[in-house]
Each structure stands twice: as structure tokens, then as C-alpha cells.
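Exam revision sheet. Question 4 asks you to relate a sequence to its structure. Input first:
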Amino acid sequence: MDYAGSFRFPVAPVDLWSAMGRLDEFERWWGWLGELRVDGGGLQTGTVLHGTVSPPVPFRMQVDVELERCVPFELIDARVTGDLSGDAHLRLHMDGDGTVTDVEWSLEMLQRSMRVAALVAYPLLRWGHDRVVEATVSSFRRQLRIQSPKGSP
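Answer key, C-alpha cells:
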């Protein structure tokens, strides 16, 4: 599954990075994420996040995300392994008084049942994927507003 998208957030890159670094909050923020464990020191090269992804389709995936390159306030490059395999990238760009994030990933589904489903029901899998992305962005914007009440969506 390939994906590319851009999202605007109403805070400066330093504030967005700070919020992204609250890894211990992710399970509370995102109902699709469970069993999150972090090996490493937060948003820095070498940290590995382990968790379970439960999208709104009948599949659960165990994934590990290794942060291969982190430049604070600018970028993250990651390698995804487990039930999904591939690369993911995040870029932060100042945009007026906010930040635009450009994200992209290319992930292969490794569970046999998911591979079969992708052949016969790709639109359903894509729908589930896109709902997870929308929920993640929406929840993250909500958390930013809570942290900085002056911000706007």
C-alpha cells in the first residue's frame, strides 16, 4: 500500500515535534493503536516503536517502526517491519504560523490473509487505511488544540 499526503497543523514545527514526542500518549489518542512499547529515547535515530494496529477492517497487525533518521523539527525516516514491511517518511515545513507535514509510505502486507484480501477487496483495505490516517490527523489536531488553546484547526 502506497500513500502520500500533506496535512497542516496550527503550531510551529518545534511545538509539533514536541507533541509528536509524547509517545506515551499515543495509545490514549488513537484507538487503533495498542500494546505500544518504545525501545529508545523518544524521537531520535535508533528508537523502535512496537505496537498493534487495529484498523476498522477485520485484521490486526503487529508492527515495529525503527526510526532510522530523525532531524528534530524537520524529518523522520523510518523502517516498518512485522506484519507490514516498508519505508515511511515524514517532513515538516513551516507555513506561516503553522506547520505542513508531508508524509509518505510504501508498505507491503505480509499476513497471508491480508494479501488475499488485498487481491479481492483492495477498496475495503484502502478504506480502512484511509480511516486510520484521518482519525490520526484529527486526533492529533485535537491534542494540539488542548495543549495550545489559541490554536485553530
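Marking note for examiners. The chain has a mean pLDDT of 89.
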